[in-house]
Amino acid sequence: MFPSPLGSVQQLYIGLFDTGILRVALFESLERIGIGFLLALLIGGLLGVLLGVSKLADETLGSLVIALQSVPSIVWLPIALILFQGGGGAILFVVVLGATWPMTMNMRMGMKNVQPILMRAAKTMGYSGSELVWRVMIPAAIPNVLTGARLAWAFGWRALMAAELIGRGGLGRTLMDARDFYNMDLVVSIMIIIAVIGLLVEYFIFSKIERRVLSRWGLSTAS
Amino acid sequence: MFPSPLGSVQQLYIGLFDTGILRVALFESLERIGIGFLLALLIGGLLGVLLGVSKLADETLGSLVIALQSVPSIVWLPIALILFQGGGGAILFVVVLGATWPMTMNMRMGMKNVQPILMRAAKTMGYSGSELVWRVMIPAAIPNVLTGARLAWAFGWRALMAAELIGRGGLGRTLMDARDFYNMDLVVSIMIIIAVIGLLVEYFIFSKIERRVLSRWGLSTAS
Amino acid sequence: GSDEEGDSAGAAGSGDAVEIGYFPNLDHAAGIVGKEKGYFEEEMAADVDFLNFPNGNDFIEALDTGVIDMGYVGPGPAINYYLAGGDIVVIGAAANGATLIVSREDSGIETLEDFSGKSFCTPGNGCTHNVQLEMMLKDKGMETNRLGGEVEHQSRVNPASMVSMFEQGQIDAAAAPEPWGTLLVEEHNANVVTEWNDVFLGEELASVVVVTTNEFLEENPEEVESALRAHKRAVDYTAENEEDTLETVNDLLYSLTQTRLPENVLEEAWTRMEVTTETHGEALQDWADASYELEFMDDDPDLDGFVDTEILDGITSE
Amino acid sequence: MSHVIIDHVEKTFPGGKNAQPFTVFEDISLSVDAGEFVSLLGPSGCGKSTLLNIVAGLDTASEGSVSINNTQVTGPGADRGVVFQEAALMPWMNVKQNVEFALKKQHSKKEASARAEEYLKLVHLSRFLDSYPHELSGGMKQRVSIARALSMDPEVLLMDEPFGALDEQTRMMLHKEVQYIWEKTNKTILFVTHNIRESILLSDRIVLMGTRPGGIRKIFDVPLARPRDPSSEEFTALEHEIMSILEKEIEKVMREEMGDDFRSKKAGLLYNSNSNMGDHI
Amino acid sequence: MSHVIIDHVEKTFPGGKNAQPFTVFEDISLSVDAGEFVSLLGPSGCGKSTLLNIVAGLDTASEGSVSINNTQVTGPGADRGVVFQEAALMPWMNVKQNVEFALKKQHSKKEASARAEEYLKLVHLSRFLDSYPHELSGGMKQRVSIARALSMDPEVLLMDEPFGALDEQTRMMLHKEVQYIWEKTNKTILFVTHNIRESILLSDRIVLMGTRPGGIRKIFDVPLARPRDPSSEEFTALEHEIMSILEKEIEKVMREEMGDDFRSKKAGLLYNSNSNMGDHI
Ligand SMILES: Nc1ncnc2c1ncn2[C@@H]1O[C@H](COP(=O)(O)OP(=O)(O)OP(=O)(O)O)[C@@H](O)[C@H]1O
Ligand SMILES: Nc1ncnc2c1ncn2[C@@H]1O[C@H](COP(=O)(O)OP(=O)(O)OP(=O)(O)O)[C@@H](O)[C@H]1O
Ligand SMILES: [Mg+2]
Ligand SMILES: [Mg+2]
Question: Which InterPro entries match (chains D, E) (predicted)?
Fold first, then answer.
């Protein structure tokens, strides 16, 4: 019952070019992960800034976020269904819940990690409040933000796969169907798709940005 | 089907002090998350160091890790069951898979974020190789590691809840059973337990360490 | 929901369409045939949309939140939901039977008596099959470890995983739904411990029921009736066209999972269930009582008002 | 008209769990007139940077207050330009962007660009507009930070050892530049330095600070006409006077530090106050 | 016996996508004897730190090679102690731990502790053993970093403007200390400074570097007997000679920088080479 490499590739081919179920599911999932990821970056970024900047927010809102984020996607799902009346929004909600947290925490630490002297310098130049955040703290936090984005991407996928159980298509659903009918080759071929997309995003987005950031920050020679 | 606050508290009380099912499940889960979390810190830490230090490892092993980490716990579960012959090891495996990744990525970025001048200084004092990593890079990465640990904790719980589906007890199992019988009050009372544990760990461990680290690093006055 | 949740249906992307849920599985053949042959479209005035679900829980959640209006589901989740105060009503049956007790080839289990000290698995905790097997064990004076007994029970083993657990020798027996029980027997040399019709409540107990919410039923009685007409047509079709039914089911499976179940397995499994509209309400009550007896439920179950086959009875007696 | 008024200021750092609170200085009062050039001199760690930071509004005084133009200082602002002891450049901006960053609040984009180039030319960095801070030498970073503060054209300039990392030629060139700007725009300048000659050369008054307990030891007027001649008699006399007080300050620290060792053989060899000590530099 | 041999060394930074490669200096050759004290002087950005880093093994030369005791330098090592231009202290270690950190490789825990305290006393920081770097003033950080390098007792000391942020008294005290240590332990010292007097006061030879193109302009022997008297005639003569060459160097840079502006009115006002320019400091 162990999946075979050949069988997986075959299933991949069939799913993409013959029956097309993988192709259709892929596009559905891509749309969701795309929107969910961007939303997570946005929300997580804002939340992280808030928690990093305001001690009060960190101690109140921060605790709430901490308390809620250990809760698994499968528990969120019914809640999301109620909140969103079963619409596609429910899936997005769960994806965002999964992906936001790493972004939030990394942005938060990025805020706290800014060298105090840079903040002081900017303040003497008349920067304050949101401008300080926007022009100094966020740029300084970019290396952390990158890690946050990478994690958001991975955990967004994980949450998406769980959320797509609700039966509105997508790779997650196909994955579960394949598992339920013991088509392990198809399971593996979906894992291959996710992995390949992950690698593409890594090579064409994350690592490119990272290399540029690290070299500009003067950190690339660190090791 | 909406849970009631009173009902949830009642279920919590019954589960903890009357039937004791929550108490038993809690201890089972705590043991798993405890071991899984520590393993994730260890493995993620080591892996992060490796990826942060070695470009080769980053480009080979790193890609593999990236490829695999988007795969959700529910997909790992059957694989883990096969690998671990259905033993408790399977649950641990899934928990570690969920928790390791954020630790790895944060440790990795921590390594890359070390101020080059500190590395250079240590090198002139005769430090090199693993000592350099251990005595300079890891301490310098502590703020990042903290974020990694926090995320590992949260995602460890998430993975645990999914992994405990296999029916070897624990809160995840109770959660699912409660869902199956539409005892939403019990579901909420389990969420309360997870949240409270999260808050306790946050207040008594993470935030204490963070406050100490930030003030020692001279970062606490950043905002 | 329909009227006041009209925009929820809209959010689901299909305007005022009636959403029908089903599982891609053999005992849902009636629903699958009805969908594939277009019976529902033909009979119903409103547009129809079909959503398939991987398990009962997700189905019930969808029903609870108004994502679907009616559909095919196992009786276990429906009863549990009903007892938890949910708005659900059984308006007919789709299949009865379909539970097989099997044991691993060299597990040493030939009869129920051999279960002592062995382990078995079921898809859910307190699911239909679980209660059936445990009830039979109870008759033989055995209990599971859940109740401090001598038989080890592992729940939440998804039917497909049973295959690998059997292969690896991790588990000795299973109370399996069809077609998985048959698959284990045909492809993995499992022993049949108890045939489907000898199982507790055996032929009587529904394996799939047709459900809707009271709210939907009251607001759309005509649509429900039309749907049941389509259902009836589908059931009749399956009875007369076994080969085509099996092919339709297998095609659907392929379109979802790119895999087909072996034909001999499907054929064999088909004999272990009865596709019918006949709803045995008392069997459902008996099952719920057994579940209570086995301490899966905290309160004595009362299924009054759970089953309402008036409309379907009207259609079948036409 | 007094421009900057430092009124009975004390700074105490709270100290951690096991550390005691640490009072850097107490009861510092100083008023600086508009257009005045005042230097702060004193041994390392006496609180010069701390005082400057309080005036800048970056630190808060534990006691007392600072006011500028009769308005109490409650926070930093672009009316006071600061050259920090460290260069404090944003690592993600290149040289030109770093200077422009300080100008964006007051100038249009085009103006900021032109101004940034002008002031970077002044500190001889025209060739390095596109370089990032980590590609610069120590002195170059300091020059960027000087260009940044000067280009902002603030009413009050707070400069913390701005020329510390510069070679003597560049330093002299910048002395002239700062003097030229100061005379032309009538800025109020608070200038921290370790270099006694530099302070005499540039300032109207020199504030000598001491440590343990920290505070102002003496304030010297520099009545010499500009441009000043470091080889003139008055110049040298003032230099010697300041030097001798500073010497006493540091000797006190040394004595505390060395305890009984202070008169030991090695210490004696090291710390004999030979006659030309004052002229070394 | 030559101790440190710098052999036809060139350093070129590769430059990024849109930046051209940048050659800091080319063809630098210098051999330093065992026990010799050599100073590097030169305008900001001429490559002094870069050269020191190459000798330290922290940077690699683009051309040529450096050898120490006839062994080619391939990386950093504890045989060469470095005082960096920035303090380079580990932020998570307190003052004492920072010094101990440098000693742990060679000394037992107890020895390291005693040695750290000894050298921190030397730089007057006994009271701040438990302070963290961010709680120190600029000069104090620099003193920790000096104590750290000295305490390591390396064969070769590479010091990059070690006394730049120190007041004159502390600086003089440390001059004596370094000289005392140097004489007693016969160290080879490469010393970067901007202070011409400091270099004459301390060194056996002074290497004058220039920029555009970067390289060694001239090497001065300092034949004066120690202790040296800065007011002596030979001292002043040497000072003036070095100053005049340096002046030419910086004027060249200025001319390039200012282009046609160089002779303009403002520039004329700023950069007139008045007669006492050489004596300023
Ligand atoms: N955050 C802090 N916590 C505790 N003590 C501090 C802190 N910041 C500064 N100090 C102490 O305040 C004193 C004055 O520091 P300051 O930086 O003002 O000195 P300075 O006069 O500028 O010295 P230098 O000439 O070396 O730059 C020092 O003894 C330092 O240890
Ligand atoms: N990573 C780098 N990339 C490009 N150029 C660099 C880099 N590092 C240094 N440089 C250039 O090398 C030259 C020499 O720098 P270096 O730090 O050696 O100067 P320096 O003589 O020590 O000057 P200072 O007295 O100001 O400290 C500078 O012009 C600088 O711009
Ligand atoms: Mg200072
Ligand atoms: Mg330098």
Answer: AAA+_ATPase, ABC_transporter-like_ATP-bd, ABC_transporter-like_CS, ABC_transporter_ATP-bind, P-loop_NTPase
pLDDT confidence of residue E275? 35
Any residues with CB less than 8 A from the CB of B79 and at least 6 apart, and which?
Answer: none
Nearest to E276 among D169, D231, D281 (CB): D231
Q: Which two tokens stand for residue E140?
A: 């104090």
For residues D247 and A47, what is the distance between their CA atoms, to the nearest angstrom? 55
The answer to whether chain E touches chain C by having 3 or more C-beta pairs less than 8 angstroms apart is no
In a 3-state reduction of DSSP, which class is residue B75?
A: helix
CB E180 near ligand 2, within 6 Å: no
- Using CB atoms, which residue from A124, A136, A217 is nearest to D56? A124
Atom number of ligand 1 nearest to Cα D11: 12
Q: Which domains does chain E have, with CATH numbers?
A: 1-75+158-164+184-281 (3.40.50.300), 80-153 (no CATH)
Edge-to-edge strands, sheet with C89-97: C48-52, C18-22, C70-73, C206-212, C89-97, C273-275
* Residue contact B125–E152, C-beta within 8 A: yes
- Residue carrying structure tokens 């097309």: A20
3-state secondary structure of E210: strand
Q: What angle do CA B23, B26, B29 make, to 5 degrees?
A: 155
Question: What confidence tier does D6 reach under pLDDT thresholds 50, 70, 90?
Answer: very high
Give, in degrees to the nearest 5, the angle at Cα E191 between E190 and E196. 135
Q: Which segment of A176-190, A197-211, D42-56 scores lowest on mean pLDDT?
A: A176-190
| Contact list, A145 vs chain D (CB under 8 Å) | none
Please give the domain boundaries of chain B with CATH numbers for all domains.
5-216 (1.10.3720.10)
Cα B210 to Cα B222: distance, rounded to the nearest angstrom: 14
Element (H, E) at A144: helix A138-163
Tokens representing residue C51 in the block: 């959503």
Residues 6+ apart with CB under 8 A from C171: B86, C104, C119, C120, C121, C154, C157, C162, C165
Q: What is the DSSP letter of C144?
A: B
At C96-149, the pLDDT tens digits run: 988 999 999 888 899 999 998 899 988 888 888 899 999 999 998 999 988 888
The b-or-e profile of B56-84 (16+ CB within 10 A means b, else e) is ebbeeebbebbbbbbbbbbbbbbbbbbeb
Torsion angle in degrees (nearest 10) through CA of A109, A111, A115, A118: 170
First-to-final CA distance of chain C: 29
Q: How far apart (Å, rounded) are the C-alpha atoms in residues C241 and A41?
A: 54
| B1–C contact, CB cutoff 8 A | yes
Q: Is B196 on the interface with A (CB under 8 A)?
A: yes
Tally Cβ neighbours within 10 Å of residue B2: 9
3-state secondary structure of E9: strand
Ligand 1 mean position to A223 CA, how many Å? Answer: 32
Q: Which of E170, E169, E179 is nearest to E201 (CA)?
A: E179
Full DSSP string of E67-130 = EETTEE--S--TTEEEE-SS----TTS-HHHHHHHHHTTTS-HHHHHHHHHHHHHHTT-GGGTT
Q: Which residues of B touch A72 (CB under 8 A)?
A: 157-159, 161-162, 172
Q: Using a CB-CB distance cutoff of 8 angstroms, which residues of chain D are in contact with residue E41? A: 167
Cβ(A29)–Cβ(A172) below 8 Å: yes
Read off the pLDDT of residues A151-198 as tens digits, 9 standing for 90 and up.
Answer: 999 999 989 988 887 667 888 888 888 888 778 888 888 888 988 898
pLDDT at E279: 38
Amino acid at site D105: K
* CA–CA dist B24, B147 (Å, integer): 30
Return the percentage of chain D with pLDDT > 90, whole number.
51
Exposed, middle or buried by CB within 10 Å (0-12, 13-18, 19+), for B3? middle
Per-residue pLDDT averaged across D114-120, rounded?
93
